[in-house]
Amino acid sequence: MLQSIHLENIAVIKSADVDFSNRFNVLTGETGSGKSLVVNSLGVLSGGRFSKEIIRTGQDNAYISGIFSDIPEVLRTVMRENGFEDNEEIELLRSVSSDGKSLCKINGRTVTLSLYREIASSLVNIHGQQENWQLTDNRYQLDALDSFSGLENKVGEYRACYAEYTNLLSKLNAMTEQIKEDKLNKDILIARKSELSKLPKNPSDEDRLISVRNELRKKEKISKEIAFSLKALKGGEKVNALYLLERSLSTLENSDNIQ
Question: What digits encode the pLDDT tens for the residues 3-12?
Answer without folding.
Answer: 899 999 998 8
